[in-house]
Amino acid sequence: MKPNLLASVILGGALILSAVIVAGGITVKDENVLQVVDGSVKLGNIFSEDDLVSAKLIFNDAHQDQVLFENIGPAEAENRLQEKIKEFSEEINFNQKDEAKKMAPEHLSIKVPATLVLTASVKYRSEYQPSFTLNLTKKNVPLPANSNMLETIKPAVSDFIKSQKNKFDSSHFLK
Predict the structure, then answer these.
(1) Which of 38, 58, 69, 70 has the smallest CB count inside 10 Å?
(2) Distance CA 78, CA 76 (A)
(3) How many whole angstroms separate alpha carbon 141 and alpha carbon 153?
(4) CA 62/CA 102 separation, integer angstroms
(5) How would you class 167 by CB atoms within 10 Å of its CB: exposed for 0-12, middle for 13-18, buried for 19 or more?
(6) In this predicted structure, what is the pLDDT of residue 157?
(7) Is 4 exposed, middle or buried (0-12, 13-18, 19+ CB in 10 A)?
(8) What is the mean pLDDT of residues 19-28?
(9) What is the per-residue pLDDT across 33-42, written as a single tens digit (0 to 9) for each?
(10) C-alpha to C-alpha distance for 101 and 28, rounded to whole angstroms
């Protein structure tokens, strides 16, 4: 009789506990697990999520690749791009004394073919992974020789950021 009573109490307790969990009375800790190529990453409690974009120019003829911006928020990308192109202009005009011969940032062009490499990622700060970056997308945009830097790169960056909005949103645990 005692074994049946004990089994009934355990079974009854398990049913009551499972009903309370299903009803939401007891919360089970959400581990926030990301599925990645090599398996999964357990984040635990997430403290912050940051959307990040990067842009790099890779030239076909030399090893003078240029990082336009790296790991910045999507809202800052266009301003950082314009700042970087202005820096290029200032470097070109450094020893130029004649104002008429100075190159304005909006007139800079790429003299050789290049590839614009755009990347999107989300950086998590969490309980189990103090700093984890999930790479979402990498896109290569070919740029022809003699193309205006501002007129070709700025729309490519803008379109890329717009196309990544859904991926950024779907990769967030914090809503």
Answers:
(1) 38
(2) 6
(3) 9
(4) 24
(5) middle
(6) 94
(7) exposed
(8) 69
(9) 888 888 888 8
(10) 68
